TrEMBL record, chain A:
The chain crosses the membrane at residues 21-40, 80-102, 114-134, 164-189, 210-234, 272-291. It comes from Paenibacillus abyssi. One of its GO terms (cellular component) is plasma membrane. The lineage of its organism: Bacteria, Bacillati, Bacillota, Bacilli, Bacillales. This is Sugar transport system (Permease). CDD domains: TM_PBP2. It is a multi-pass membrane protein. It is found in: Cell membrane.
TrEMBL record, chain B:
The keyword Signal applies. Pfam families: SBP_bac_1. It comes from Paenibacillus abyssi. GO terms for cellular component: cell envelope. It is found in: Cell envelope. This is ABC transporter substrate-binding protein. Gene3D superfamilies: Periplasmic binding protein-like II (3.40.190.10).
């Protein structure tokens, strides 16, 4: 009798495990097909001179060509500059806006969250068209009217090397902080009130509470936003493609755009795949450094 | 109950997976119908013609071109009852990306619309079909020789041309006359760079504050359009192609430096805006219609109609007229000649190419593609899109075909177009694909970026010339470039 019961339990357990594996399989197959397989395939293509009707194996030639290509290093430098100028400022701005929103009542908070999240819902192409209009090079352009108010001559925002990168950075500064703000707001709501109460009893000022309570408690959130921000920024493509096309004189050519051009303008899929893998390795290395140096003190 | 729920969840998950997989499957709408495609069959051995489906990917070539697709498919099927023509419409924005994705996946349509300059790119991928063997002499004779050559490379005929358009410039009739320019004479006899420079400086108008309210000349040069600006001007600057007759790279000659100096000079004179490098195609047309420029580029024959339609809207107080626009009569003009060179117009020939996928197509299928391409590029179909684009058809059959609607035309512009078209030169068919590919790489990686910098006044003409020369030497060697 006892043995029969154990057998049934075992069967039930195995049966439950079976269902579990079946459910995992769905995600696993999707991951294998749409993530693992493309990565493996990209690696294989990076060793070939890809042609639709038959590719040829070229070993590490595509990697060697990439390393000796001045444009790749220029694009990498541009991407790094763009990342350094956008990611920290965007995180700081999102943090600041979240701090300004948090004292409001829930309903008002929701209104602000919706307003700040709205650009994320809009199509990137539509946003680019609006920004192209803002950066109209003639005197009638909005940005030129703003600088004209301060007595500055009208600028060729996207057409000059001096201002093209800044224009893309400005575009990033002023758009799409919605996700980061919502994440920061959720993290801020997770800080127990007792910490603020204890600080107030000790006579802490607003800035002291911010520095000694909020900033340390939000460190894991900041690390998360930093890592995802750097990954996103290194893969930036759309803004440069739509706004400047990488110009003038490659002043805004990012690695993502270079990969796109190699793949879809020159049909050099092998070189594009090699550059994609190198970009992935660079991103992984930076993420590792971020976790190593910034991920240490996140336990309280 | 719990078990039922699990089964249902798993069932839905499986459906989700199958949906994902089917979306990635190769049997999309773009693939030829495998049940009756000529790709499957061998040559026709019986007396009865084998059924076949021809697929085509086509953009909105003219205003009503895509609207006529159903009629075109029907008409083709009536002509060849054993054949089915299946046309997939694509927008101009999607066309190249859609085609390139299908080509690289090894399953392109049988026919696609491309500009003739893209042919070498597809030849290098080995995906084009030579139609020489399947096009009869009678069919070939229907096409004008100049246009026909644009779809040849070596001895192969990779498709058929649909139209030949001249990329020129165009002026506002009133402004040209105010500046004292004898535009009728220019239309017939052309002008040199010096004459042009003088004319556009007379076209500049300033307000009381000394601010320019009207430029003499504005050309779209933002991003890749700068390539058009340079190549259109280069044709009449003694640089008709990237390679000279002995296949030496020609943009290293002093003619190129002279052209670059002219390009910079027109901005420094104040005849062109200093922000030229950011002016795109839409902006410069807007500047033309709003009276902010006397001459604009690039110009197409159909711009006459666009300006006329806007004029009618202004007269009728129609709110859909371009904001702040004025009545402007478009006058077609040739580009100036530089360095004492002769006038060579930029002839843009677009048309249809024949493609193959991973499977070797049967002879019969290739023949059927030839029939379909000829059908699409001649007769009443070509007559109608040429008419809508204000172009003279390039096939005898189209010239003799009736059109659905007649559009009013400026007789002087018609004559000017005829003069420009008569000077169009056939495409070079002797340039090897590897040389052409290398030239395109220099164009994209050096010429276009440096030209943008030159227009933005960040480098001098000499610096740009040196950069292009250095890139050319790297690609073709000291012996592979023109030195003068």
């Amino acid at each position: 009798m006892n043995q029969t019961l154990t057998k049934r339990r075992k069967l039930k357990l195995e049966s439950d495990s079976g269902w579990g594996y079946a459910f995992i399989a769905v995600a696993l197959i999707a991951f294998s097909l749409f993530t693992a397989y493309p990565v493996i395939n990209a690696f294989m293509i990076s060793l070939q001179e890809y042609r639709p009707l038959g590719s040829t194996y070229v070993g590490l030639e595509n990697f060697v060509n990439t390393f000796s290509d001045e444009l790749f290093w220029k694009a990498l430098k541009n991407t790094l500059v763009y990342t350094l100028l956008t990611v920290p400022f965007n995180i700081f701005l999102s943090f600041l806006i979240a701090i300004l929103i948090i004292p409001f009542k829930k309903r008002t908070q929701t209104i602000f969250k919706a307003v700040y999240y709205l650009p994320a819902v809009a199509s990137g192409v539509a946003l680019a068209v609006v920004w192209l209009w803002i950066f109209d090079p003639l005197k009638s352009g909005i940005a030129n009217q703003v600088v004209g108010f301060f007595g500055i001559d009208n600028q060729n925002w996207l057409g000059s090397s001096a201002t093209a990168m800044f224009s893309l950075v400005l575009m990033s500064w002023l758009s799409s902080h919605g996700t980061a703000i919502i994440i920061y707001l959720a993290a801020l709501l997770g800080i127990d009130n007792s910490y603020y109460e204890a600080a107030e009893i000790d006579g802490a000022t607003f800035l002291q509470k911010l520095w000694f309570i909020v900033v340390p408690f939000l460190k894991p959130t900041t690390l998360f936003l930093l890592v995802t921000g750097v990954i996103g920024s290194f893969q930036v493509f759309q803004n440069a493609y739509l706004m400047t096309g990488g110009g003038p004189d490659h002043a805004t050519t990012m690695v993502g755009l270079l990969i796109f051009n190699n793949a879809f303008t020159y049909f050099e899929f092998g070189e594009a795949a090699a550059q994609s893998l190198l970009l992935a390795a660079i991103i992984a290395f930076i993420a590792y450094l971020q976790f190593k140096f910034l991920g240490k003190e996140i336990e309280y | 109950m719990k078990k039922r729920s699990s089964v249902l969840t798993l069932f839905l998950s499986v459906i989700m997976m199958l949906s994902l997989l089917s979306a990635c499957g190769g049997n999309g709408n773009n693939a030829p119908d495998s049940t009756n495609s000529g790709n499957q069959g061998s040559s026709n051995s019986g007396s009865e013609l084998q059924k076949d489906t021809i697929t085509a990917l086509l953009p909105p070539v003219s205003a009503n071109y895509q609207a006529r697709f159903a009629d075109m498919e029907k008409e083709f099927n009536e002509l060849y009852p054993h054949l089915t023509l299946k046309i997939e419409p694509a927008s101009w924005e999607d066309m190249t990306q859609k085609l390139d994705t299908q080509v690289n996946a090894g399953s392109p349509p049988d026919i696609a619309w491309v500009g003739s300059t893209a042919i070498s790119k597809y030849v290098a991928l080995d995906v084009l079909l030579d139609l020489n063997a399947v096009l009869s002499d009678e069919v070939k004779a229907d096409y004008d020789e100049v246009a026909m050559k644009y779809f040849q490379l070596g001895d192969s005929q990779y498709g058929l041309p649909a139209y030949l358009a001249i990329h020129s410039i165009g002026g506002n009739k009133q402004f040209l006359e105010d500046a004292g320019i004898d535009w009728k004479n220019v239309q017939q006899n052309g002008w040199t760079y010096e004459q042009f420079r003088d004319a556009i400086s007379k076209g500049v108008v300033k307000n009381d504050k000394g601010e320019i309210t009207q430029y003499g000349f504005v050309f779209a040069t933002s991003g890749v359009t700068s390539k058009d600006y340079l190549s259109i001007m280069a044709k009449s600057a003694g640089l008709p192609d990237y390679f000279d007759e002995s296949l030496k790279y020609s943009y290293t000659s002093k003619n190129f430096l002279g052209l670059l100096e002219g390009i910079r000079q027109m901005i420094d004179d104040g005849s062109m805006p200093k922000e030229l490098s950011s002016i795109d195609a839409g902006k410069r047309w807007n500047m033309f219609l709003t009276g902010q420029t006397m001459i604009t580029g690039k110009g197409l024959a159909s711009f006459e109609n666009s300006a006329r339609l806007n004029n009618e809207k202004i007269k009728a107080n129609d709110g859909s007229a371009v904001a702040d626009s004025i009545e402007a009569e478009y006058i077609a003009l040739p580009v100036p000649t530089f360095n004492g060179a002769g006038y060579i117009p930029t002839a843009v020939v677009d048309g249809y190419i024949a493609l193959r996928g991973k499977k070797e197509p049967s002879e019969e299928h290739v023949r059927n593609i030839g029939l379909a391409i000829n059908f699409l590029s001649s007769g009443s179909i070509a007559a109608n899109y040429s008419n809508e684009l204000f172009l003279t058809p390039i096939t005898e059959s189209a010239r003799n075909a009736a059109v659905l609607e007649e559009y009013p035309r400026n007789e002087d512009n018609v004559k000017a177009d005829q003069v420009m078209m008569s000077k169009a030169v056939p495409a070079r068919t002797d340039i090897p694909t590897d040389l052409a590919a290398e030239a395109i790489k220099i164009e994209t990686e050096v010429i276009v970026p440096k030209l943008q910098a030159l227009l933005a006044n960040e480098i001098t003409p000499q610096e740009m010339y040196d950069a292009v020369k250095a890139a050319a030497i790297k690609s073709f060697g000291e012996d592979g470039i023109v030195v003068d």
